[in-house]
Amino acid sequence: MEKFEVAIIGAGIVGASLFSxxxxxGVKTVLLEKADDVSNGSTKANSGIVHAGYDxxxxxxxxxxxxxxxxxxxxxxxxxxxxxxQCGTLVVANExxxxxxxxxxxxxxxxxxxxMRIVEREELHKMEPNLADNIDIALFAPTGAxxxxxxxxIALCEEGVVNGGTVKLNxxxxxxxxxxxxxxxxxxxxxxxxxxxxxxxxVGANDVxxxxxxxxxxMKYVKxxxxxxxxxxxxxxxxxxxxxxxxxxxxxxxxLTLHHNIMLGPTAIPCEPYDTKVDAEGISQIKExxxxxxxxxxxxxIIKLFAGVRVVSGEDFIIEKLPDxxxxxxxxxxxxxLTAAPAIAEYLVEKMIQDGLQTRNHEFxxxxxxxxxxxxxxxxxxxxxxxxxRFGKIVCRCExxxxxxxxxxxxxxxxxTTVDGIKRRVRPTMGRCQGGFCLPKxxxxxxxxxxxxxxxxxxxxxxxxxxxxxxxx
Length: 473
Ligand SMILES: Cc1cc2nc3c(=O)[nH]c(=O)nc-3n(C[C@H](O)[C@H](O)[C@H](O)COP(=O)(O)OP(=O)(O)OC[C@H]3O[C@@H](n4cnc5c(N)ncnc54)[C@H](O)[C@@H]3O)c2cc1C
Known about the structure:
With 473 residues, this protein is of the alpha+beta class. It is built from twelve helices and 21 strands. A hairpin with a 2-residue loop joins strand 9 and strand 10 (182-187). Helix 2 packs across helix 8 and helix 10 (403-410) packs across helix 12. It is globular and about 65 Å long. The protein starts with a strand and ends in a 23-residue tail after the last helix.
């Protein structure tokens, strides 16, 4: 049985950040994930915002890790060679909201957010011409940013792998057995051993705690639905636009993705743990609320509806250790968990070091970013095509993704095996037609690279096969 110093359960942004932090410190680490790819839980479906940190209650773990995480993101993204758009964020209000906006500002100051200011009507409407007419003022936080949450998570995992870490997918942890000073962690008939175990299982965190004899916590699951508009709406907003927050959360916002789509949402609807279906009621709620902050979006340009699930346990994050053991757990990592994750990882590593974890000097290996032909100048692209003609063959017309880019994703350190896995890495099927044109070509490329029949290729795991038997012939 393979032996590791640390086993992390769950490859969302928290587990991935910890994996990267440990492997960069030379710790022999395994990341165990029940799905067939990393970034398959809350991390794949959220607003993708690095929050500045004015929202959490001062003194909480949320506040502490939000601030530290948002400070870490720019250098982390540069190390990972992934994009971050340092566009700032706006919380908008009309005159009657001035007092609440000032309170938010004060809270930000207490939390240590840098550079915030209140922006008045004239300047504000110049910054964002599509704000609703009744918006008078806003809190501008320049340290807020936009990232691709799944790409950051994938990049962290890839970085961990090229620095000596191991990722085991399809490893649904169902048993944790302490033996002397070690743990045996199993999924069916597969097992690994580790000195330290960290539960980063998101929606599944209580179940994992139960396996280890750690306490279970009251949990609520809250669905957030989104509408995604195509790139033709680029420029509708230039940064995330939030309404004033309420007890129910940060409210329904208009934001942009790194690839120039506009995103509207999320709702906040109590749900079952893995319920990510989008309901008509949710869509109506988004349409009704969004116009309180911005002008009416062009709904003819909607290309996708999707939802993510928040795991809420009380008012704060729970990051604890089962006393007198080396089993650590993270519970209730809801928003701002994406922002906070690198700081949570840093904190957990410090705790493990205090408990005897040995780190060592390690020669850092940088991960290779995915080639993006769209951002290359003509000369570079010509040279690349000369080297490998597949970078000259467009497969996805909407996003202009070439066969070469798909092949490099298929051969990347974590070797994605599903259509969604390729999509999250290099974007085919992400555009206006949502795969209507490129999916047949993509399946052929995947089938030849993976040496399996097209009928076996799934959208996102077993049970989501795309072709019925025989149809691909
Ligand atoms: C609608 C919405 C909007 C949000 N917007 C933002 C935002 O803009 N900014 C921000 O900072 N935060 C945001 N968040 C919060 C953020 O998305 C989460 O805090 C973060 O993704 C949680 O990451 P995680 O790693 O804890 O969990 P997850 O991403 O859910 O990862 C947990 C992983 O554990 C795996 N797992 C579960 N059980 C097992 C098991 N038994 N064995 C092996 N693996 C297992 C799961 O498959 C999953 O991959 C938002 C959340 C939602 C839902």
